[in-house]
Predict the 3D structure of the following.
Amino acid sequence: MTYLPESRRQLLAAAQRRAERHWMPAGIRMRVGWVLPALSLALAAAVAVAFLSLRTQPGGGTATAQPRQLELVYRAGPTTEVPLVTHAALERAARQMNLRLSEIPHSDSSIQVLSGDRIRVDVTTQASRARVEALVGSDARLFFYDWETNVLLPNGRTVAQGLSVNDARALELSQGSESVPPGAGGAGALGLYQAVRLAARQPYAPRQEDSRTGSEYYLFSRHGHLASGPLDVGARVSRAGAIRELDAGLSRSQRQGRVLVIKQGTVVVQAAPERFTVAGAFASPSASARYYVLRDRVSVFGGEITHPRAGTDATGAPDVQFGFTGNGRAAFRRLTAAVSRRGELDSSGSQRLFQHFAVALDDQLIQVPQIDYTVYPDGIAGSQADLTGSFSRVSARGLAKALQLSALPVELTLVSARR
Amino acid sequence: MIRATATDAELLAGTRRDAQAFAIFYDRYERAVLGFFINRTRDPELAADLTAEVFAAALRAARRFRAQEETAAPWLFTIAHNVLRSSLRRGRVETRARQRIGIREPVVYAPEELDRIEALTDDRSWVVELLEGLPAEQREAVRARVLDERSYEDIAQELNTSQLVIRKRVSRGLAALRVQVEEKP
Protein backbone atom coordinates (compact mmCIF):
# COMPACT_ATOMS: atom_id res chain seq x y z
CA MET A 1 0.00 0.00 0.00
CA THR A 2 1.43 3.32 -1.03
CA TYR A 3 2.13 6.04 1.51
CA LEU A 4 1.33 8.96 -0.77
CA PRO A 5 -1.54 7.98 -3.06
CA GLU A 6 -2.21 11.49 -4.38
CA SER A 7 1.45 12.23 -5.10
CA ARG A 8 1.76 8.84 -6.77
CA ARG A 9 -1.30 9.58 -8.91
CA GLN A 10 0.13 12.93 -10.00
CA LEU A 11 3.50 11.41 -10.84
CA LEU A 12 2.01 8.56 -12.83
CA ALA A 13 -0.22 10.97 -14.73
CA ALA A 14 2.92 12.95 -15.58
CA ALA A 15 4.71 9.74 -16.58
CA GLN A 16 1.73 8.85 -18.76
CA ARG A 17 1.81 12.25 -20.48
CA ARG A 18 5.51 11.86 -21.13
CA ALA A 19 5.04 8.35 -22.52
CA GLU A 20 2.25 9.60 -24.80
CA ARG A 21 4.37 12.50 -26.01
CA HIS A 22 7.22 10.16 -26.71
CA TRP A 23 5.11 7.89 -28.90
CA MET A 24 2.87 10.50 -30.45
CA PRO A 25 3.25 11.42 -34.12
CA ALA A 26 5.06 14.70 -34.62
CA GLY A 27 1.97 16.65 -35.78
CA ILE A 28 -0.02 15.76 -32.71
CA ARG A 29 2.97 16.45 -30.50
CA MET A 30 3.06 20.01 -31.80
CA ARG A 31 -0.53 20.52 -30.77
CA VAL A 32 0.14 19.06 -27.35
CA GLY A 33 3.01 21.48 -27.15
CA TRP A 34 0.41 24.25 -27.18
CA VAL A 35 -2.21 22.51 -25.11
CA LEU A 36 -0.04 21.42 -22.19
CA PRO A 37 1.37 24.86 -21.37
CA ALA A 38 -2.12 26.31 -21.70
CA LEU A 39 -3.48 23.71 -19.28
CA SER A 40 -0.50 24.29 -17.01
CA LEU A 41 -1.13 28.00 -17.03
CA ALA A 42 -4.76 27.43 -16.17
CA LEU A 43 -3.73 25.11 -13.35
CA ALA A 44 -1.15 27.58 -12.07
CA ALA A 45 -3.74 30.35 -12.16
CA ALA A 46 -6.14 28.14 -10.22
CA VAL A 47 -3.48 27.44 -7.62
CA ALA A 48 -2.57 31.13 -7.42
CA VAL A 49 -6.08 32.17 -6.54
CA ALA A 50 -6.71 29.21 -4.27
CA PHE A 51 -6.60 30.18 -0.62
CA LEU A 52 -7.74 29.03 2.70
CA SER A 53 -10.33 31.27 4.27
CA LEU A 54 -11.14 30.91 7.91
CA ARG A 55 -13.58 33.15 9.60
CA THR A 56 -13.94 33.75 13.31
CA GLN A 57 -17.31 34.34 14.87
CA PRO A 58 -17.93 37.88 15.99
CA GLY A 59 -17.45 38.19 19.72
CA GLY A 60 -20.42 38.76 22.03
CA GLY A 61 -21.06 41.77 24.17
CA THR A 62 -21.90 45.37 23.38
CA ALA A 63 -19.53 47.35 21.20
CA THR A 64 -18.84 50.82 22.49
CA ALA A 65 -16.29 52.00 19.88
CA GLN A 66 -16.46 51.92 16.13
CA PRO A 67 -14.69 48.81 14.80
CA ARG A 68 -11.95 49.51 12.26
CA GLN A 69 -10.61 47.41 9.47
CA LEU A 70 -7.00 46.35 9.43
CA GLU A 71 -5.11 44.39 6.81
CA LEU A 72 -1.81 42.73 7.70
CA VAL A 73 0.30 40.76 5.26
CA TYR A 74 2.98 38.43 6.60
CA ARG A 75 5.78 36.60 4.88
CA ALA A 76 6.30 33.10 6.28
CA GLY A 77 9.84 31.89 6.80
CA PRO A 78 11.33 28.61 7.96
CA THR A 79 11.88 27.70 11.60
CA THR A 80 14.09 25.03 13.05
CA GLU A 81 11.02 22.86 13.66
CA VAL A 82 9.80 23.47 10.11
CA PRO A 83 12.93 24.15 8.08
CA LEU A 84 11.00 24.34 4.82
CA VAL A 85 7.80 26.30 4.33
CA THR A 86 5.14 24.04 2.84
CA HIS A 87 1.57 24.81 1.87
CA ALA A 88 0.43 22.55 4.71
CA ALA A 89 2.58 24.48 7.18
CA LEU A 90 1.04 27.74 5.97
CA GLU A 91 -2.42 26.30 6.48
CA ARG A 92 -1.52 25.19 9.99
CA ALA A 93 -0.15 28.64 10.75
CA ALA A 94 -3.35 30.24 9.43
CA ARG A 95 -5.48 28.07 11.69
CA GLN A 96 -3.26 28.94 14.64
CA MET A 97 -3.43 32.65 13.84
CA ASN A 98 -7.19 32.41 13.55
CA LEU A 99 -7.33 30.82 16.99
CA ARG A 100 -5.26 33.67 18.37
CA LEU A 101 -7.46 36.32 16.81
CA SER A 102 -10.53 34.69 18.32
CA GLU A 103 -9.10 35.85 21.66
CA ILE A 104 -10.03 39.44 20.74
CA PRO A 105 -13.63 40.25 21.62
CA HIS A 106 -15.84 42.09 19.13
CA SER A 107 -13.65 41.09 16.23
CA ASP A 108 -14.31 39.58 12.86
CA SER A 109 -11.35 38.25 10.97
CA SER A 110 -10.45 36.27 7.91
CA ILE A 111 -7.10 34.74 7.10
CA GLN A 112 -5.97 33.84 3.64
CA VAL A 113 -3.03 31.75 2.59
CA LEU A 114 -1.90 33.45 -0.60
CA SER A 115 0.18 31.85 -3.29
CA GLY A 116 3.86 31.79 -2.44
CA ASP A 117 4.72 32.31 1.19
CA ARG A 118 2.30 35.10 2.14
CA ILE A 119 -0.51 35.08 4.67
CA ARG A 120 -3.04 37.92 4.73
CA VAL A 121 -5.00 38.82 7.84
CA ASP A 122 -8.12 40.97 7.51
CA VAL A 123 -9.59 41.93 10.82
CA THR A 124 -12.38 44.25 11.85
CA THR A 125 -11.88 45.12 15.48
CA GLN A 126 -11.91 47.77 18.16
CA ALA A 127 -8.51 46.54 19.35
CA SER A 128 -5.41 48.54 18.51
CA ARG A 129 -3.13 47.54 15.66
CA ALA A 130 -0.35 46.90 18.20
CA ARG A 131 -2.49 44.40 20.07
CA VAL A 132 -3.49 42.58 16.91
CA GLU A 133 0.13 42.40 15.75
CA ALA A 134 1.31 41.23 19.16
CA LEU A 135 -1.31 38.51 19.29
CA VAL A 136 -0.79 37.28 15.75
CA GLY A 137 2.97 37.49 15.82
CA SER A 138 3.66 36.25 19.35
CA ASP A 139 5.42 32.97 19.29
CA ALA A 140 6.06 31.27 22.62
CA ARG A 141 7.97 28.06 22.05
CA LEU A 142 8.67 25.27 24.48
CA PHE A 143 11.92 23.31 24.34
CA PHE A 144 13.19 20.33 26.31
CA TYR A 145 16.97 19.98 26.72
CA ASP A 146 19.18 17.40 28.31
CA TRP A 147 20.55 19.65 31.08
CA GLU A 148 23.97 18.27 31.96
CA THR A 149 25.09 17.52 28.39
CA ASN A 150 24.18 21.02 27.17
CA VAL A 151 24.71 23.54 29.95
CA LEU A 152 28.21 25.03 29.76
CA LEU A 153 30.78 25.76 32.43
CA PRO A 154 32.71 29.06 32.26
CA ASN A 155 35.55 27.14 30.56
CA GLY A 156 33.24 26.16 27.69
CA ARG A 157 33.04 22.48 28.62
CA THR A 158 29.72 20.89 29.41
CA VAL A 159 28.63 20.06 32.92
CA ALA A 160 28.56 16.38 31.98
CA GLN A 161 32.24 16.64 31.04
CA GLY A 162 32.95 18.52 34.25
CA LEU A 163 31.24 15.89 36.38
CA SER A 164 33.50 13.23 34.94
CA VAL A 165 36.52 15.04 36.45
CA ASN A 166 34.77 16.02 39.72
CA ASP A 167 34.66 19.73 38.84
CA ALA A 168 33.03 21.58 41.77
CA ARG A 169 31.31 24.14 39.53
CA ALA A 170 29.87 21.33 37.41
CA LEU A 171 28.54 19.70 40.55
CA GLU A 172 26.83 22.95 41.56
CA LEU A 173 25.26 23.44 38.13
CA SER A 174 24.06 19.84 38.07
CA GLN A 175 22.86 19.41 41.61
CA GLY A 176 22.11 22.99 42.72
CA SER A 177 23.38 24.38 45.97
CA GLU A 178 21.85 23.89 49.40
CA SER A 179 18.24 25.01 49.02
CA VAL A 180 18.60 26.29 45.44
CA PRO A 181 17.53 23.79 42.76
CA PRO A 182 19.46 23.40 39.49
CA GLY A 183 18.40 25.88 36.85
CA ALA A 184 17.52 28.58 39.42
CA GLY A 185 19.42 31.85 39.69
CA GLY A 186 21.58 30.89 42.64
CA ALA A 187 22.84 27.58 41.31
CA GLY A 188 25.87 28.72 39.34
CA ALA A 189 24.13 31.02 36.86
CA LEU A 190 25.95 34.01 35.34
CA GLY A 191 25.19 37.66 34.80
CA LEU A 192 23.97 38.54 31.33
CA TYR A 193 27.26 39.98 30.09
CA GLN A 194 29.30 37.01 31.34
CA ALA A 195 26.78 34.58 29.87
CA VAL A 196 26.71 36.27 26.46
CA ARG A 197 30.52 36.54 26.42
CA LEU A 198 30.81 32.82 27.13
CA ALA A 199 28.18 32.02 24.49
CA ALA A 200 29.89 34.26 21.93
CA ARG A 201 33.10 32.24 22.32
CA GLN A 202 31.35 29.04 21.20
CA PRO A 203 31.80 27.92 17.59
CA TYR A 204 29.18 28.04 14.86
CA ALA A 205 27.55 24.62 15.17
CA PRO A 206 24.25 24.38 13.31
CA ARG A 207 22.23 21.27 13.96
CA GLN A 208 18.79 20.04 13.09
CA GLU A 209 17.93 20.23 16.79
CA ASP A 210 18.63 23.94 17.15
CA SER A 211 15.90 26.10 18.68
CA ARG A 212 16.86 29.04 16.48
CA THR A 213 18.61 29.70 13.21
CA GLY A 214 21.03 32.50 12.40
CA SER A 215 22.96 34.60 14.87
CA GLU A 216 21.97 36.66 17.88
CA TYR A 217 23.53 40.12 18.36
CA TYR A 218 23.98 42.05 21.59
CA LEU A 219 25.45 45.50 22.19
CA PHE A 220 26.87 46.07 25.66
CA SER A 221 28.13 49.34 27.10
CA ARG A 222 31.74 49.61 28.29
CA HIS A 223 30.49 48.79 31.76
CA GLY A 224 28.85 45.57 30.63
CA HIS A 225 25.27 46.84 30.62
CA LEU A 226 22.98 45.77 27.80
CA ALA A 227 22.57 48.73 25.43
CA SER A 228 20.73 47.01 22.58
CA GLY A 229 19.54 43.55 21.61
CA PRO A 230 19.23 40.69 21.64
CA LEU A 231 18.64 40.85 17.90
CA ASP A 232 18.02 37.60 16.06
CA VAL A 233 19.08 37.73 12.44
CA GLY A 234 18.95 35.14 9.68
CA ALA A 235 22.00 33.64 8.07
CA ARG A 236 21.75 36.01 5.08
CA VAL A 237 22.06 39.21 7.12
CA SER A 238 25.61 40.55 7.20
CA ARG A 239 27.33 41.54 10.41
CA ALA A 240 27.37 45.16 9.29
CA GLY A 241 23.63 45.07 8.56
CA ALA A 242 22.90 43.54 11.94
CA ILE A 243 24.99 46.12 13.76
CA ARG A 244 23.26 48.95 11.87
CA GLU A 245 19.96 47.59 13.11
CA LEU A 246 21.34 47.18 16.62
CA ASP A 247 22.57 50.80 16.60
CA ALA A 248 19.30 52.23 15.30
CA GLY A 249 17.98 54.91 17.60
CA LEU A 250 21.05 54.94 19.86
CA SER A 251 23.18 58.01 20.52
CA ARG A 252 26.83 58.10 19.44
CA SER A 253 28.02 57.41 22.98
CA GLN A 254 25.60 54.52 23.38
CA ARG A 255 26.98 52.96 20.21
CA GLN A 256 30.52 52.93 21.60
CA GLY A 257 30.11 49.62 23.37
CA ARG A 258 31.01 46.08 22.50
CA VAL A 259 29.05 43.94 20.06
CA LEU A 260 28.85 40.25 20.96
CA VAL A 261 27.47 37.71 18.53
CA ILE A 262 26.14 34.33 19.57
CA LYS A 263 26.42 32.01 16.63
CA GLN A 264 23.86 29.35 15.79
CA GLY A 265 24.30 26.32 17.99
CA THR A 266 24.44 28.09 21.37
CA VAL A 267 21.72 29.80 23.42
CA VAL A 268 21.57 31.93 26.53
CA VAL A 269 18.57 31.20 28.74
CA GLN A 270 17.36 33.09 31.76
CA ALA A 271 17.45 31.14 35.03
CA ALA A 272 14.17 29.79 36.37
CA PRO A 273 12.59 32.29 38.75
CA GLU A 274 11.64 31.31 42.27
CA ARG A 275 8.09 31.97 41.37
CA PHE A 276 6.25 32.87 38.18
CA THR A 277 4.00 35.80 38.86
CA VAL A 278 2.97 37.23 35.51
CA ALA A 279 1.92 34.75 32.91
CA GLY A 280 3.36 35.27 29.46
CA ALA A 281 5.86 37.97 30.50
CA PHE A 282 8.82 35.79 31.17
CA ALA A 283 12.19 36.47 29.64
CA SER A 284 13.27 40.08 29.41
CA PRO A 285 16.95 40.87 29.92
CA SER A 286 17.57 42.73 33.16
CA ALA A 287 20.57 43.57 35.29
CA SER A 288 19.46 41.42 38.21
CA ALA A 289 18.45 38.34 36.23
CA ARG A 290 20.85 35.38 35.99
CA TYR A 291 21.55 33.26 32.96
CA TYR A 292 22.87 29.92 31.72
CA VAL A 293 24.60 29.10 28.45
CA LEU A 294 23.45 25.96 26.67
CA ARG A 295 24.45 24.07 23.60
CA ASP A 296 21.32 24.40 21.50
CA ARG A 297 20.46 20.74 21.12
CA VAL A 298 16.72 20.45 21.69
CA SER A 299 15.51 16.95 22.53
CA VAL A 300 11.77 17.61 22.34
CA PHE A 301 10.11 20.59 20.64
CA GLY A 302 6.94 22.26 21.86
CA GLY A 303 5.21 21.25 18.65
CA GLU A 304 5.32 17.71 19.98
CA ILE A 305 3.17 18.44 23.01
CA THR A 306 -0.63 18.33 22.96
CA HIS A 307 -3.57 19.62 25.00
CA PRO A 308 -1.74 21.85 27.47
CA ARG A 309 -3.97 22.87 30.39
CA ALA A 310 -3.66 24.28 33.88
CA GLY A 311 -4.40 21.95 36.77
CA THR A 312 -3.14 20.91 40.17
CA ASP A 313 -0.71 18.20 41.18
CA ALA A 314 -1.27 15.54 43.84
CA THR A 315 -0.50 18.03 46.60
CA GLY A 316 -2.95 20.60 45.23
CA ALA A 317 -0.24 22.92 43.91
CA PRO A 318 -0.91 24.57 40.54
CA ASP A 319 0.72 22.89 37.57
CA VAL A 320 0.56 22.76 33.79
CA GLN A 321 -0.33 19.40 32.27
CA PHE A 322 0.06 18.25 28.71
CA GLY A 323 0.35 15.18 26.50
CA PHE A 324 2.71 14.24 23.69
CA THR A 325 2.29 13.31 20.07
CA GLY A 326 3.55 9.83 19.17
CA ASN A 327 6.77 11.37 17.99
CA GLY A 328 7.06 13.51 21.10
CA ARG A 329 6.42 10.56 23.40
CA ALA A 330 9.27 8.63 21.81
CA ALA A 331 11.58 11.67 21.96
CA PHE A 332 10.71 12.35 25.61
CA ARG A 333 11.40 8.75 26.50
CA ARG A 334 14.75 8.86 24.72
CA LEU A 335 15.65 12.05 26.55
CA THR A 336 14.70 10.79 30.01
CA ALA A 337 16.33 7.41 29.40
CA ALA A 338 19.62 9.10 28.48
CA VAL A 339 19.43 11.33 31.57
CA SER A 340 18.62 8.33 33.77
CA ARG A 341 21.50 6.23 32.41
CA ARG A 342 23.98 9.04 32.89
CA GLY A 343 22.80 9.56 36.48
CA GLU A 344 23.40 5.92 37.24
CA LEU A 345 26.85 5.95 35.64
CA ASP A 346 27.93 9.09 37.51
CA SER A 347 26.69 7.81 40.87
CA SER A 348 28.90 5.72 43.07
CA GLY A 349 28.16 3.95 46.35
CA SER A 350 25.88 6.04 48.48
CA GLN A 351 26.47 9.22 46.43
CA ARG A 352 23.61 9.50 44.00
CA LEU A 353 23.96 12.12 41.29
CA PHE A 354 20.51 12.23 39.76
CA GLN A 355 20.65 14.15 36.51
CA HIS A 356 18.19 16.45 34.82
CA PHE A 357 16.41 17.73 31.77
CA ALA A 358 15.46 21.37 31.30
CA VAL A 359 12.22 22.87 30.09
CA ALA A 360 12.50 26.32 28.53
CA LEU A 361 9.86 28.64 27.15
CA ASP A 362 11.72 30.59 24.49
CA ASP A 363 14.75 31.97 26.38
CA GLN A 364 13.34 31.38 29.84
CA LEU A 365 14.02 28.26 31.88
CA ILE A 366 10.83 27.06 33.50
CA GLN A 367 11.98 23.99 35.32
CA VAL A 368 14.92 21.58 35.51
CA PRO A 369 13.42 18.31 36.78
CA GLN A 370 15.60 15.42 37.91
CA ILE A 371 15.23 11.82 36.78
CA ASP A 372 15.59 9.21 39.50
CA TYR A 373 17.35 6.33 37.76
CA THR A 374 16.17 3.88 40.41
CA VAL A 375 12.54 4.69 39.52
CA TYR A 376 12.92 5.32 35.76
CA PRO A 377 15.91 3.24 34.63
CA ASP A 378 14.53 3.18 31.07
CA GLY A 379 13.20 6.72 31.00
CA ILE A 380 9.62 7.97 31.30
CA ALA A 381 7.30 6.26 28.86
CA GLY A 382 4.02 7.93 29.85
CA SER A 383 1.89 9.89 27.45
CA GLN A 384 1.26 12.72 29.96
CA ALA A 385 3.60 15.10 31.71
CA ASP A 386 3.23 18.06 34.01
CA LEU A 387 5.29 21.05 35.04
CA THR A 388 5.04 21.83 38.72
CA GLY A 389 6.76 23.73 41.46
CA SER A 390 6.70 27.45 41.02
CA PHE A 391 3.36 28.46 39.59
CA SER A 392 0.49 30.46 40.95
CA ARG A 393 -2.92 29.53 39.57
CA VAL A 394 -2.86 32.62 37.38
CA SER A 395 0.61 31.98 35.97
CA ALA A 396 -0.19 28.28 35.39
CA ARG A 397 -3.27 29.29 33.40
CA GLY A 398 -1.21 31.88 31.56
CA LEU A 399 1.45 29.36 30.58
CA ALA A 400 -1.14 26.80 29.49
CA LYS A 401 -2.79 29.44 27.32
CA ALA A 402 0.58 30.51 25.92
CA LEU A 403 1.31 26.90 25.00
CA GLN A 404 -2.11 26.45 23.41
CA LEU A 405 -1.52 29.49 21.25
CA SER A 406 2.15 28.84 20.75
CA ALA A 407 4.35 27.28 18.18
CA LEU A 408 3.36 28.75 14.88
CA PRO A 409 5.00 26.32 12.50
CA VAL A 410 6.53 29.19 10.51
CA GLU A 411 8.26 32.43 11.35
CA LEU A 412 6.21 35.47 10.41
CA THR A 413 7.57 38.76 9.16
CA LEU A 414 5.12 41.60 8.76
CA VAL A 415 5.54 42.98 5.23
CA SER A 416 2.62 45.40 5.05
CA ALA A 417 -0.10 46.83 7.25
CA ARG A 418 -2.86 49.21 6.34
CA ARG A 419 -6.19 50.40 7.64
CA MET B 1 5.20 -5.60 -20.82
CA ILE B 2 7.11 -4.43 -17.77
CA ARG B 3 7.27 -6.90 -14.93
CA ALA B 4 7.68 -6.26 -11.22
CA THR B 5 10.89 -8.28 -11.31
CA ALA B 6 12.53 -5.92 -13.82
CA THR B 7 15.79 -4.28 -12.81
CA ASP B 8 15.86 -0.59 -11.92
CA ALA B 9 17.61 0.15 -15.20
CA GLU B 10 14.88 -1.65 -17.17
CA LEU B 11 12.19 0.21 -15.30
CA LEU B 12 13.77 3.63 -15.81
CA ALA B 13 14.38 2.94 -19.48
CA GLY B 14 10.80 1.67 -19.79
CA THR B 15 9.21 4.86 -18.40
CA ARG B 16 9.67 6.49 -21.81
CA ARG B 17 7.11 4.09 -23.25
CA ASP B 18 5.11 2.79 -20.33
CA ALA B 19 4.04 4.74 -17.24
CA GLN B 20 3.52 1.45 -15.45
CA ALA B 21 7.30 1.00 -15.38
CA PHE B 22 7.60 4.16 -13.35
CA ALA B 23 4.78 2.98 -11.06
CA ILE B 24 6.82 -0.12 -10.22
CA PHE B 25 9.95 1.93 -9.66
CA TYR B 26 8.03 4.36 -7.45
CA ASP B 27 6.52 1.58 -5.35
CA ARG B 28 9.93 -0.03 -5.00
CA TYR B 29 11.55 3.05 -3.47
CA GLU B 30 8.76 5.23 -2.04
CA ARG B 31 9.19 3.90 1.47
CA ALA B 32 12.96 4.14 1.33
CA VAL B 33 12.92 7.77 0.23
CA LEU B 34 10.23 8.68 2.75
CA GLY B 35 12.26 6.98 5.48
CA PHE B 36 15.32 8.92 4.39
CA PHE B 37 13.50 12.26 4.64
CA ILE B 38 11.46 11.64 7.77
CA ASN B 39 14.62 10.76 9.64
CA ARG B 40 16.19 14.02 8.58
CA THR B 41 13.23 16.38 8.88
CA ARG B 42 10.99 14.66 11.46
CA ASP B 43 8.10 16.29 9.65
CA PRO B 44 5.76 13.96 7.76
CA GLU B 45 4.34 16.66 5.47
CA LEU B 46 7.77 17.89 4.60
CA ALA B 47 9.03 14.36 3.99
CA ALA B 48 6.04 13.71 1.74
CA ASP B 49 6.63 16.89 -0.31
CA LEU B 50 10.34 16.21 -0.67
CA THR B 51 9.67 12.61 -1.68
CA ALA B 52 7.30 13.73 -4.42
CA GLU B 53 9.95 16.14 -5.67
CA VAL B 54 12.60 13.41 -5.75
CA PHE B 55 10.45 11.11 -7.85
CA ALA B 56 9.53 13.97 -10.16
CA ALA B 57 13.25 14.66 -10.64
CA ALA B 58 13.86 10.94 -11.17
CA LEU B 59 11.16 10.82 -13.82
CA ARG B 60 12.69 13.76 -15.67
CA ALA B 61 16.18 12.28 -15.46
CA ALA B 62 15.22 8.63 -16.04
CA ARG B 63 16.85 8.40 -19.45
CA ARG B 64 20.14 9.64 -18.03
CA PHE B 65 20.40 6.71 -15.63
CA ARG B 66 23.32 4.49 -16.61
CA ALA B 67 22.02 1.02 -17.39
CA GLN B 68 25.21 -0.70 -16.25
CA GLU B 69 24.60 0.31 -12.62
CA GLU B 70 23.53 -2.57 -10.41
CA THR B 71 20.81 -0.58 -8.65
CA ALA B 72 19.31 2.90 -8.93
CA ALA B 73 19.37 3.41 -5.17
CA PRO B 74 22.60 5.45 -5.01
CA TRP B 75 21.42 7.57 -7.95
CA LEU B 76 18.01 8.12 -6.34
CA PHE B 77 19.50 8.97 -2.95
CA THR B 78 21.90 11.39 -4.61
CA ILE B 79 18.84 13.15 -6.01
CA ALA B 80 17.30 13.04 -2.52
CA HIS B 81 20.39 14.64 -0.99
CA ASN B 82 20.39 17.33 -3.65
CA VAL B 83 16.69 18.10 -3.24
CA LEU B 84 17.10 18.37 0.53
CA ARG B 85 20.20 20.54 0.28
CA SER B 86 18.68 22.81 -2.32
CA SER B 87 15.43 23.12 -0.37
CA LEU B 88 17.26 23.97 2.84
CA ARG B 89 19.31 26.57 1.04
CA ARG B 90 16.21 28.24 -0.36
CA GLY B 91 14.15 27.81 2.80
CA ARG B 92 11.31 26.30 0.78
CA VAL B 93 10.58 22.86 -0.55
CA GLU B 94 12.02 22.57 -4.02
CA THR B 95 9.21 22.27 -6.60
CA ARG B 96 11.05 22.79 -9.87
CA ALA B 97 11.03 19.15 -10.96
CA ARG B 98 7.31 18.78 -10.29
CA GLN B 99 6.53 21.98 -12.13
CA ARG B 100 8.60 20.90 -15.10
CA ILE B 101 6.61 17.70 -15.46
CA GLY B 102 3.35 19.63 -15.13
CA ILE B 103 2.52 19.03 -11.45
CA ARG B 104 1.49 22.34 -9.96
CA GLU B 105 -1.32 21.39 -7.64
CA PRO B 106 -0.23 21.12 -4.00
CA VAL B 107 -1.18 17.87 -2.30
CA VAL B 108 -3.03 18.01 1.01
CA TYR B 109 -2.19 14.92 3.00
CA ALA B 110 -4.77 13.12 5.12
CA PRO B 111 -4.01 12.77 8.85
CA GLU B 112 -3.83 8.99 8.59
CA GLU B 113 -1.28 9.28 5.78
CA LEU B 114 0.84 11.56 7.93
CA ASP B 115 0.52 9.16 10.87
CA ARG B 116 1.84 6.32 8.73
CA ILE B 117 4.76 8.42 7.58
CA GLU B 118 5.46 9.59 11.11
CA ALA B 119 5.60 5.95 12.22
CA LEU B 120 8.76 5.65 10.10
CA THR B 121 10.58 7.93 12.55
CA ASP B 122 10.69 5.37 15.34
CA ASP B 123 14.06 4.07 16.35
CA ARG B 124 13.14 0.69 15.00
CA SER B 125 12.13 2.18 11.69
CA TRP B 126 12.26 0.15 8.56
CA VAL B 127 15.58 1.66 7.47
CA VAL B 128 17.32 0.44 10.58
CA GLU B 129 15.59 -2.92 10.38
CA LEU B 130 16.66 -3.30 6.79
CA LEU B 131 20.20 -2.36 7.61
CA GLU B 132 20.23 -4.89 10.40
CA GLY B 133 19.46 -7.54 7.82
CA LEU B 134 22.70 -6.82 5.97
CA PRO B 135 26.06 -8.41 6.67
CA ALA B 136 28.04 -6.27 9.12
CA GLU B 137 30.54 -4.95 6.55
CA GLN B 138 27.84 -3.88 4.10
CA ARG B 139 25.72 -2.40 6.88
CA GLU B 140 28.60 -0.29 8.10
CA ALA B 141 29.45 0.88 4.60
CA VAL B 142 25.85 1.74 3.63
CA ARG B 143 25.23 3.53 6.90
CA ALA B 144 28.39 5.61 6.54
CA ARG B 145 27.92 6.42 2.86
CA VAL B 146 24.15 6.81 2.45
CA LEU B 147 22.82 7.73 5.87
CA ASP B 148 25.80 9.67 7.26
CA GLU B 149 26.77 11.11 3.84
CA ARG B 150 30.48 10.49 4.31
CA SER B 151 32.92 10.27 1.42
CA TYR B 152 34.29 6.95 0.20
CA GLU B 153 37.77 8.19 1.01
CA ASP B 154 36.83 9.00 4.59
CA ILE B 155 35.13 5.65 5.16
CA ALA B 156 38.00 3.72 3.57
CA GLN B 157 40.49 5.45 5.84
CA GLU B 158 38.50 4.67 8.94
CA LEU B 159 38.04 1.04 8.01
CA ASN B 160 41.61 0.75 6.84
CA THR B 161 40.75 -0.53 3.40
CA SER B 162 40.55 0.74 -0.17
CA GLN B 163 37.87 2.98 -1.63
CA LEU B 164 37.11 0.30 -4.19
CA VAL B 165 36.25 -2.21 -1.48
CA ILE B 166 33.95 0.31 0.19
CA ARG B 167 32.25 1.09 -3.12
CA LYS B 168 31.58 -2.60 -3.65
CA ARG B 169 30.20 -3.03 -0.15
CA VAL B 170 27.88 -0.04 -0.57
CA SER B 171 26.74 -1.23 -3.97
CA ARG B 172 26.07 -4.77 -2.75
CA GLY B 173 24.40 -3.52 0.39
CA LEU B 174 22.07 -1.26 -1.56
CA ALA B 175 21.26 -4.04 -4.00
CA ALA B 176 20.38 -6.30 -1.08
CA LEU B 177 18.26 -3.52 0.42
CA ARG B 178 16.36 -3.25 -2.81
CA VAL B 179 15.53 -6.94 -2.64
CA GLN B 180 14.33 -6.46 0.91
CA VAL B 181 12.23 -3.45 -0.09
CA GLU B 182 10.47 -5.63 -2.60
CA GLU B 183 9.92 -8.34 -0.03
CA LYS B 184 8.41 -5.94 2.52
CA PRO B 185 4.61 -6.10 2.70
Residues 15 and 21 of chain B are 5 Å apart (CA to CA). The first helix of chain B runs from residue 8 to 14. Chain B has a mean pLDDT of 79.
